[in-house]
Structure formats: C-alpha cells, structure tokens
Amino acid sequence: MSTTKEAIIEEFKNYVSPSKVAVYKRMGIELVPGRREGSYIWDKSGKRYIDCRTAGGVFNLGHRPPRVIAALRKALESLDIGDHILMSEYRAALAKRLAELMPGDIRYTFFGASGGEAIDLAIKLARGYTQRPKVISAERAYHGHTGFALAASSRKFQAPFGPLMPGFMNVPFGDIEALDLAMDEEVAAVIFETIPVPGGVLIPPRDYFPQVRELCDRRGALLILDEVQAGLGRTGRLWGVEEYHVVPDIMVLGKGLSGAIYPITATCYREKLESFFEPDPFIHLSSFGGAELGCVAAMAMLDQITEPGFLEHVKEMGSRFQEGLALLREKYPQILIEVRQRGLLIGLQMVDKKCGPLLTRALGQNGVLAIFAGLDPSVTIIMSPLIVTEEEVDLVLEALDRSYQAVTVQTEMLA
Ligand SMILES: Cc1ncc(COP(=O)(O)O)c(C=O)c1O
C-alpha cells in the first residue's frame, strides 16, 4: 500500500480514475481520507474535516459507530453473508422490526445491497403488480445508476446511454397540476424522493403528498417514496414522509441503513403487493441483498436511532443550525438567498451556480466537507452526522461564516 498522500493520489490516478483525479484537483478537493471517527475524517496529511457530506446519509451515525461495530464484531464469530435463496433468522427479524416502524400497513421487505437495486425492485414490483407500463418521476430526481432507477432519474444522468427506456416520464416536483396532466390509466407508479436532495433539497408544501396520494388512488397507480436520504431520522422524524401523513405503497431505504459498516438496502411494501410474488417468489434475486451480517449492522443502527432522545437530539441540533444560518443569511444576503431545512437536512440556496463549487472549496479550507447538489450547483447541502454535538454545529457555522466571507470576495472579483 502507498503511504504518502502524493503516492496514493498517483496510484489512484494510474489505476482507478485519472479523470476523477483531474476533477478533484480542479475543484480543490484533494482529500484522501485516512483516520475517521464520529463526525470527523482526517486527510492523509493530518488535516481534520467535519463531515457534512456523510455520503448522503451513509454516515448518519458518524464514522465507525461503536454500537454497530460491536454488533458486527460479535456476529463475525458465527455468521457470514448467508444464502440469499434460503430462509434467514436475521432477515426475518430485521423485516419484522422495519414493519413495526414503517408508516401504515407497509409490511414486507425485500433486501438489497444498493439503493439503485432497491429502487429497481420497487419499479419492477409496481409494473408487475399493476400490469401497467408507465412510471412518472420528478424532473430533478436521482434514484440511482442502475436500470429502472436510472430511467426514473434526471435526464442528465441518462444522456450518454440512450435510447431511453420506454414508459418513463417526468414532471416538475411539487407541481400537482403537472402530475394530474401526466396521469392516466397506464401509469403503474409515481416515484418521488420525499425530499429530493440531489435536486437541491426541495421541500414540498404540506398538501403536496396528500394530493399525490389521492391522485394515485384515483388512477390506480402505486406511490413509491425514496427515503434513501430523507429517511432514518435525518429530518428529525423517523421517516421524512411522516410530516405529510400519507402512506406510500412502497418505501425504499438505503445508505444509513448500513450503519456505514455493511451495505444493506430495503424495499418495503404494503401487504397487498405480495400477491405479485405468488406465481414465482424467486422472480427477483440478489446474492448480497440482505446479507446476514448487514442485517446485524442494520438492527444495531435501528436500535440506536429509535432510542428515546435520539430524534429530539436531531431536532435540537437542527434548531441550532437554523438559528446560526438565519444570522448568516442576514450577514450575506447577496449570496445566501434561502435556507431550506428539515432537521439535519439542509440546503443552502445561493444566488447562482458558481457559488456551490466556490463554497465547497472554501469550506474545505476551513475544515468542513460539504458539497453542492449534483443537479443544482447553486445549492450547497449540509448533512452532518445525526450524532453531531453542539460544539461541532458551532464549528460548522463558524466555518460557513469564514467561507461566505471568502466567497463574497471571490464573486466580487469574478463580477
Ligand atoms: C435519493 C437516492 N436514491 C437512491 C440512491 C441510490 O443509492 P445507491 O448509490 O446505494 O445505489 C441515491 C444515491 O445517492 C439517492 O440519493
């Protein structure tokens, strides 16, 4: 293994991706993670960063969460991945736990190994169950890079891989009239992220999802909600959708479910949909999906986020961010024009597309890792671990203050 940072970058460039290294260099993100613990990662050079990227919620419990590690250490004494074709004590226990926590009558779970795969199954299930071909998603959606998930994502990600998969359409997120117009008796499912994060942390009004639910019911379409980023406590509620008081037919979980230690994802669905699997229960398979070690990691993670006080902590830290960000908005009104927030899911809407990359670079210099939204560089996403402390929130706010000063100077120079 290479030891110096320069040697690692060279090796990465030579054997993984020269084009990625070029982009990191251009953007000033030359971070090679070494040590990691809790809310922090350390660059190989020794520089410390607070992780406000958390890989979109993978690190909800921070890096190397002790409880998940202890559970997995113990499990490694006697378990392995398990045979996905057979029954499993661990998949059964985790699925039961999820059913108890899920909204409404969502009951069954099919486990996967990646979010894209879990979304693919949600769409397969909807098409198979309804026997209809069409799927409606949001224009600025991101559901993963696999087949059906990619087809339901923004055109930006599909462009190099045409021709497009038939039957997929998109509408502007939050626009109920556009959805109404797109709906017909051929629509199998409407799929949305509860809060689209890569689209720029778009928070829908309170009446949006109830109306979407009503439209789906009226037209006989299923509602799929992607809670890969918005679920598992991120918003200060266990599920992002709780705020909207609707029950989707299928809910997809990923990222944070792994406890950042062992990949596992879940496609959870209502009881009635199980009839799709009756003719052939093995019509969808995943060798690594629902690995028993992953089930142990997910169970330990769920134990932690459902403990009394956990979600209150997320809300309190969210409020601390909210107060600090309101001050920054007053101080930098020419750059920071809106703060969109639910709990510890925060989108900083800035004045133009230059600002996201400039802020990412400045934050990096000030010891915070945060990135702009993949589909809208004018929005910087702040997603700290959910275990973030008051002191760490204050450190991020101070870093934001210094970074906005720097971005102000740079944008004035560019003007
Ligand atoms: C909202 C959302 N859905 C699905 C996915 C796909 O998950 P994965 O990268 O595990 O395939 C992502 C990944 O970023 C995501 O943000």
Low-confidence segments, given as residue ranges, are none
Q: What does the main sheet amount to? A: 7 strands, mixed
Number of helices: 13
The count of DSSP E runs of length 2 or more, i.e. the number of strands, is 15
**Structural class assignment:** alpha/beta
> Beta-sheet strand percentage?
15-25%
Estimate nothing, just give the exact number of structural domains.
2
In angstroms, what separates the terminal alpha carbons?
45 Å
Cα-atom radius of gyration: 21 Å
Features:
415 residues; alpha/beta; Aspartate Aminotransferase, domain 1; Aspartate Aminotransferase, domain 2; 2 domains; seven-stranded mixed β-sheet; 15 strands; 39% helix; 18% strand; globular; binds pyridoxal-5'-phosphate
Task: Write up this protein.
With about 425 residues, the chain is α/β, with parallel strands linked by helices. The chain contains 13 helices and 15 strands. The strands form 3 sheets. The protein has a 7-stranded mixed beta sheet, with helices on both faces. Strands 1-2-3-13 form a 4-stranded mixed beta sheet. Strand 7, helix 9 and strand 8 form a beta-alpha-beta unit. The chain starts with a helix and ends with a helix. The model has no long low-confidence stretch (mean pLDDT about 95). Bound molecules: pyridoxal-5'-phosphate.
Can you give me a brief rundown of this structure?
This protein is an alpha/beta fold. It contains 13 helices and 15 strands. The structure holds pyridoxal-5'-phosphate.
